Amino acid sequence: MIVEGDPKGCPTYVKFSKLWSEAMHSIGKYEDMKPPEYWLRSVRRVGMEIRAVKIIKWRTNVPYTVFKDIVKETIKEWRRLGVNEKYIAKLNDLLEEVKREGFRWSDIVAILAEVKKFRGSDVVISDTISFRITCDFIESLVRSNAH
Questions:
Q1: What residue numbers bound the domain in which 19 lies?
Q2: To 10 degrees, the CA torsion angle through 91, 36, 114, 52?
Q3: Number of structural domains the chain divides into
């Protein structure tokens, strides 16, 4: 099972994601989000069969005070990791933009796949049920954090 955020989203999310990636690249860490199509192609390329795909959407914006706390903790972590202050300044600028425009996390993409040769149908049924339970759980977290 693959569960990843979609790099597309509201304009402030796209800026946040891009800034995060740039900051991580600047210290030799590579955290790049890939679109759902990338994961689907990758799964097929290694000979797996896709059993289910679910897109889980956030329904509300992150409250500004929560985003502000996320930025505060991110800045602490970035300083600990040695991220250049120019990225921290950009993050603070983004915080002001989020105050005006809002911020919503990107969709969550869940993909269930199996290796064709090694799996029996009883396992696929079990995995599909687990996949649905996992997606339901993620959706419940999204809903509970929306308030």
A1: 2-144
A2: 110
A3: 1
